[in-house]
Structures are given as C-alpha cells and as structure tokens.
Amino acid sequence: MQKAFRYGGYLASAALIVFGAGAVVAGTLGFLEVRDTIAAENITATPDAPELGVDLEPGEEIDTGAEAKEFSKIIRTHALEATGGRTFSEMGRFLTAEGEETDDEAEAAVDEASGRPVENQARNIWITATAFTTALNTAFLAERIALFSIVMGVALLLTGIGFFVLTRAALRGIEEPAA
Fold this sequence. Notes:
The chain is mostly helical. It has 3 helices and 2 strands. The two termini are 22 Å apart.
C-alpha cells in the first residue's frame, strides 16, 4: 500500500507539472502567433479613430488582440456609413433597373457584360466588413484564450509542485518508525 501512495502521489505530481508546463508553452506560442499574424496584416488605425471613440491613435499599428477589437469598431462604423445605417438583413440582394433593392432575382436589372442580376454593392460592402470584423474579433478572442491557457498552466504547475511537497511530507511520516 505504501508503494501505491508513493508512486501514485509522485505520478500525479509529475502529470500536473507536465500538463502545466505544456499549457504555459502552448499558451505562449498561441499568444505570440496571434500577435505576429495581426502585425503581418499591416493594419493601421484610420485618421478618424479618435472621433469614433475607439482607444486607438490615428496611424497606430494594430498588433494586439485588444487593438484588433477596437479597430473592428471602426470598420463597423464605416460599413454603416456606406450602407446608410443599414445592416445585411435590411438590404435587398439585387438592384432593379430603377436602382431599387429587391431580393427577387426576376425583378433585378441584368448586367449587360455578365448577363447576371445586378448585385446590391452596399450589401456586399456589409458582407466584406462583417468578415473583416469577425476576423479581428476572433484575434481578440484567441489572444484571451492563450492568456487563459498560460494562467491555467501556471495553476497546474503550482498544484503539481504543491502535491509533490505534500506527497513527500506524507510519505516521510509513513516511513519514520513510531517511537
């Protein structure tokens, strides 16, 4: 029974320490990857950033998850300006010959060059902006998940070390003969 306690305690301690170290390494690599990926896009804050109430300076490079989240607010504002304040679901998919919006392909004007219905470009702007803001917000989330992994890894490391200390102390009491 004594061997089971000894080996089980040490094994549990080692597992916690290994998993903790692995979580810290994975979290750190993920955190750095997110930042490198954002920086590689060479995004800079627009001149109107202060007017839009975001926490960015004009021309500031976007290279962190928090800055990416702030920049997504700029993109959303610009998209709303371009669409007259309307979102995707409030716009028709096509334009008629009169320039009115419609979701009915039969009512849509036909592009002479392609022979296809004329798409509503304002709606396409919204779709593009939504894809971009989603990517920026995902970078913010990924950076936060990486930080969580680091914190949890440190907690596992400390727990493993503590468990090791407790196992040694408990086994020392078992090994010493009673007086």
